[in-house]
Amino acid sequence: MSGLPDRGDTSQTTLPKLLVRLHRARATGTLSVSSGALVKKIFFKKGSAIFASSNFEDDRLGEMLVKSGKITVEQYDRSVELLKTGKRLGAILVELGYITPKELFWGVKYQVKEIIYSIFQFDRAEYEFSEDGHGQDEVITLKMSMGNLIYEGVKRIENWTRIRKELPATESVLKLNDDPLSLFQEVELSPTDKKILSLVDGKRDIKHVIEDSWLNGFEAMKILYVLWSIGILTEKKVEGAAISVDELFRPVSEGEETLRRRVEEMEKKVASGSSYGLLGVEPGARLDQIKKNYYRLAKEFHPDRLFDSDDSVLKDRLSAIFDSITDAYNSLKEAAYLSEEAFIEEGAGASRQAESLAGDPFGGQDALRLDDLDETPANNIVSKKDEEKAAQEHKHGLETLKSGNVKKALGYLKLAAELNPRKAEYWSVLALAWSRNGGSVREAEHALREAIKLDPGKGDYYANLGLLFMKAGSTQEAKKQFEMALALEPGNQKARQGLKQIR
Q1: Which CATH number do you get for residue 420?
Q2: Tens-place pLDDT, residues 258-284
Q3: Torsion (CA) 243, 249, 253, 254 in degrees, nearest 10
Q4: How far apart, in whole angstroms, are the C-alpha atoms of residue 181 and residue 21?
Q5: Where are the beta strands (DSSP E) in 6-136?
Q6: Interval 292-318: pLDDT, tens
Q7: What domain range is 326 assigned to?
Q8: Using CA atoms, how far apart are residues 495 and 491, in angstroms rounded to an integer?
Q9: Which of 144, 173, 207 is the C-terminal boundary of a domain?
Q10: Quick one: residue 473, left, alpha or beta (phi over 0 = left, psi -120 to 50 = alpha)?
Q11: Per the confidence metrics, is the pTM higher than 0.70?
């Protein structure tokens, strides 16, 4: 069962986690959940909960309709007497004129939802999933997104101890989930939920989110627990999600017919086999642009958009597109991450080395010059003062580049390369800054060629030059650079990924 055992208990795996795993695995079968003598079942078809049953008498359709005021006790007793005819209670109620067919549809769906919601009340229960076809022949089936189903079920939990136990520690920081499948699921959040969500900024821990809210502690914690259970929020362990709360709730406006046309367009892109074309980015695109396009497409083609549709074929096509754009994103993300992070790490290493040399008043300076004098013209000999100043400027440049201020970083990095032009690493990071400064490909190429002249045996510089050519659309020249990088460093991952994308 997609990473979970076929049987177990909810003290180890919570019901929300079980439902999410079954939904993502597009499982078909029956989830049985038992607590003592009570046994309740949820029937799945391709990951959607379509029906439910229970051996608890109060969960039967007749009892549900009485409690909801749809039929009287007298009508209930009369209809139960006729069950011996072999007909189902719903059909009997309609035949007797006690309810309309429309009310029967409402009643069955209400019954199914109430059975599922009641399972969330089990503090501890045993579960078992079996792959079977039970429930598939039901005429009236539930059409509800898994996100909303879990949302409504979790909201009914009033056990403070359980919520406190299952939610991460109050010192933990929550953030919006990076996974679009969880982030863009169909969930109808209340205005209060959205306000609490706006307090989750990736900096406040749970304790401070609760303190900064206008609700009492239990209500605020419960909302966080609900949002965490359905997967919109997750514990922060890496950088925050590349999306804002405003973007999360911005609606996708087109109707189903427009969506069909978009599905056809995307299927053609999937068939082309180009990850770049599928995500709508150019070769060599920056990681932030790749991520931005991926989140936009993931929201547009999220499987939950058709949870209430009868068109199972279109649902499957939508799921296939979502999987394809996710695969494309993972592929391009790895290549972009390798190129950009390697540039930064090279520069950081150079900065640390330069700082070390600058901190050594004699040995470091002399050793560096002795190593380079044979290949460096006399007018390129760097004074101790310029070397120290270059190291300082380069460090500032790296920090500024990481903060996203490219133009300011360029000022520091250019000065560093001018003060100490014999540092290949300085030119390499300067090339990265130029490449991030839209339209500065020529300057970036020049800086990388300077780095290669100074250190012609470093395969990473050729790989970076190849990525630069890919960004400019010169695939043949990029191929040459990647091949040179691999000739020098057979294990160079940037070059391998680059060649893979070209092919």
Answers
A1: 1.25.40.10
A2: 888 888 888 888 888 788 888 888 876
A3: 60
A4: 12
A5: 7-9, 29-35, 38-45, 48-54, 126-130
A6: 888 888 888 888 877 777 777 888 888
A7: 256-333
A8: 9
A9: 144
A10: left
A11: no
